[in-house]
Request: fold
Amino acid sequence: MNDVPEVVRAFSPHIVITDTGTPFELKVEEKGDELDFYIEDGDTEAYFNINKDEFEAKDTEDYKRKAKAWVKQQLYIYCNRLTGTDLPYGCLTGVRPTAVYYRSIGSYSNIKAHLINDYFVDEKRASLIEKVVETQNGYVKKDPRRADIYVNIPVCPSRCSYCSFISAEYPRVKKLIPQYVEAVVAELKKIKRTMVVKGYYPGAVYIGGGTPTSLDAESLDRITAELNFGVEYTVEGGRPDTMTKEKLKILKDNGVTRVSVNPQTFHDETLLKIGRRHTVSDFYDAYSIAKSYGFQINIDLIAGLPGETPADFEWSLVRAYELRPENLTVHSLSLKRGSALKDNYNRVMDGTVKKMCDFAIDTLLSVGYLPYYMYRQKNIADGLENVGYTLPGYVNRYNVDYMEETTTVLSAGAGAVTKYVFPEEGRIERTANAKGIEEYIRRAFAEDEGK
Ligand code: SF4
Reply:
């Protein structure tokens, strides 16, 4: 019953969710061969019933999964009637819409139809999921010896108003950076030893955050030099105002192959509003420096930024794809606790962001981009998705590995999560580092003293 109430949450704010929970009482009961499901919301109640044989379950696990899917379907039908609202992903909750697709291979001859008929996913999203799976074909490989490496640099030049990541403003933590870099480098050396001992080979490297290029050139050099394995190597520059020639040269010299330069929008007025402290012109400057060093580039855009209309977003999208970056990621605005915008900007559920994302899907596909990974978040505008698009042949393998959970990821830095994937056993083990920079440093140096 953890996942089931997510169906109700997906209808927020059409259905008001309070801190104490959903406005419904849900009850699921097994009675002999039957499964009964009641909903009561004070005024009305509904009752659904099914004979368990109809699930045609192969085993107990399969039964559990199918019973849960059935309960979610009934709940979706109920909420859909109550609110008159169709959600783009129907009763499909969870971060990875492709997971259901992969799970259905071998059981359904037409998986797209299964998504539409059994999960109420709309036609456009069902096609999108199918296309993502198609693009990922050949990249989703379960190799127990492959390990990606992730480094978290939770520092940014200023805080964007929509951000809910744990990321500190650079001026506030500047004096801690030398110790942080020291601790990260030590952890990376440890990771490299682990790789030798456990027999992993390096798959892909990703330095994210935050804004890793907020670091000074010397710090960036020390960290990136540790990871020059000659494989796909991405650094999320993110904020164009941090990407100087000097830093990009260091990245190039240390084997980095890809960078993100993220405008989020091509409207200066919006950039000011969301606290990014850079201009569209700064973005173009950073983009052309990155291009001059031969990096493959990702551009991030956000649909649904405050005050933007579909026409504003369309303008940004066209400006972005005209540059022909190898990757272009379109996020739908998602506001969580911890973001400054959350207080005076409710979740958008009026169809505006859907118009933007529909335009993005149609346009990017028509100009030669392929959707290659996707994920969803809680409170995402119009119940949509974030999609990474790629020019053919430029899939960022780390993103696929991470999203599809097929590859071990060894991680360093504050808040980083190491994930050991055991494909043969269908098992994943996770361990998380301390979240804040101060605590991460404290523990790293305490460990050293304990040796
Ligand atoms: S650049 Fe990214 S991580 Fe940093 S504050 Fe903005 S949204 Fe958050």
In short: The longest strand covers residues 201-209.
